[in-house]
Design brief:
The chain is an alpha/beta fold and 391 residues long. The chain is 40% helix and 17% strand. The protein is built from 14 helices and 10 strands. Helix 1 runs antiparallel to helix 14, helix 4 packs across helix 13 and helix 8 packs across helix 13. The two termini are 14 Å apart.
Length: 391
């Protein structure tokens, strides 16, 4: 291996080298999300186990835990069937009462998808964002929490089960029946939602990202950027609307995502959604995830679109560089590449919450809080390793 390629190889390994504590936490979470979590499955125990685990973790973190039950309708074959779901809500209450931010992920899964990929890893990331945020805002942390953050694991996203199911998803019920009353039925009390849905597929292979013609028409700038990179699936997609509050949320997240070296490896691809006919052809790409009820919110006859970001690897439109044959164990699933990709999203979401909902305390007022989730020492160590190899 020549010197230039050696530098590149070791630097990439440094960028994606896992924080051992973070890797351990992610794998521990994934152990509870490796079964098919669907009411139409042969057994409902994996969904119930995931539900218990999320509640326990929210409580351990000191969140105020709420369970929101709701009914929705499935149509497995020819007859409709009413099923009961349960959204799990963990509230980190602020002291000031400013606009609320929501971070959410679906904890159920379609029958045929990988339960770790869709969306076990998203829920694991949700739990890790909550853990980091609560650590940073605890006594002795680096930040004082001002505004409320709501962490929510949604149940029964029936829109991902198939087009024949007529019921509303868990995120719809959460928004209409829990969040809207919680924010006193005014959008002024809401700063936005960040939804984590399928965030594990990463590939530096050419043509690993499938781009529809309709996608090119709707997102010309993003399509050009992807084409220029050789259609590689080497990015996290961020779907967002273009109203002023959505732009503010997206800009804050983007700044946090791109501020450290990992952004060079795992880039962020903004996909701003404008109203108009050009988006009709690509609606199926993103209208079944849990951000969409926020965009299409109608508390009455009037449409009141709420700011929400969808963070995703684009799901079926991307091939993964890491193949994990079924049954795929959490240990086999959590490769270095996947761990790095997920951790990058966790860091950016956590720091976005810290920017929006807290204030940094003076150094003298803290007792060694982490002040963020990155570790400069890792990079220094990697440079030392490279130097030894070269010399």
């Amino acid at each position: 291996m020549d010197c230039a390629n050696l530098w590149k190889f070791v630097l990439i390994m440094c960028v994606v080298a896992p924080d051992s504590a973070q890797e351990t936490q992610l794998q521990a979470h994934l152990e509870h999300f490796d079964g098919v979590r669907n009411p139409m499955a042969a057994t409902d125990e994996p969904r119930l186990e995931a539900r218990r685990y999320i509640k326990d973790k929210f409580r351990e973190l000191g969140l105020n835990v709420h369970s929101q039950t709701f009914n929705t309708v499935l149509k497995p074959l020819y007859e409709e069937r009413t099923v009961t779901g349960e959204n799990i809500v963990g509230v980190a209450a602020g002291t000031v009462g400013g606009p609320v931010v929501v971070v959410g992920a679906d904890y159920d899964t379609p029958l045929q998808s990988s339960p770790l990929e869709d969306n076990g890893a998203g829920v694991a990331a949700l739990l890790e964002v909550a853990r980091h945020f609560m650590h940073e805002t605890a006594r002795g942390g680096s930040f004082e929490q001002l505004n409320t953050v709501v962490f929510v694991a949604f149940d029964l996203n029936v829109k991902t089960y198939g087009n024949n199911h007529p019921g509303k998803p868990g995120s719809y019920h959460f928004l209409h029946q829990w969040l809207w009353p919680y924010i006193n039925q005014t959008s002024n009390n809401f700063a936005g939602a960040i939804i984590l849905d399928s965030i594990t597929k990463f590939s530096t292979q050419f043509d690993s990202q499938y781009v529809l013609q309709e996608f090119k028409d709707a997102f010309p700038k993003a399509a050009s950027s992807i084409a220029n990179s050789g259609n590689k699936g080497d990015f996290l997609a961020m779907f967002t609307r273009e109203d002023s509050r959505s732009i503010h949320l997206a800009n804050t997240f983007t700044a946090n995502y791109e501020k450290d070296r990992k952004a060079r490896m795992f880039r962020l691809q903004p996909m701003p959604v404008r109203d108009g006919l050009s988006f009709v052809g690509v609606l199926e790409m993103f209208n079944h995830q849990s951000h969409y009820p926020f965009w299409s919110f109608r508390p009455s006859e009037e449409l009141v679109p709420l700011p929400a970001l969808l963070l995703t690897d684009t799901d079926v439109y991307r091939m993964s560089m890491d193949v994990c044959d079924r049954p795929c164990t959490p240990a086999a699933f959590l490769t270095r590449g996947r761990e790095g990709f997920i951790t990058k999203a966790i860091d950016a979401v956590t720091n976005t919450l810290l920017n929006l909902q807290t204030k940094r305390l003076p150094v003298s007022a803290t007792s060694g809080g982490a002040g963020g989730t990155t570790t400069p020492l890792l990079f220094i160590t990697c440079i030392a390793v490279i130097s030894r190899i070269i010399l």
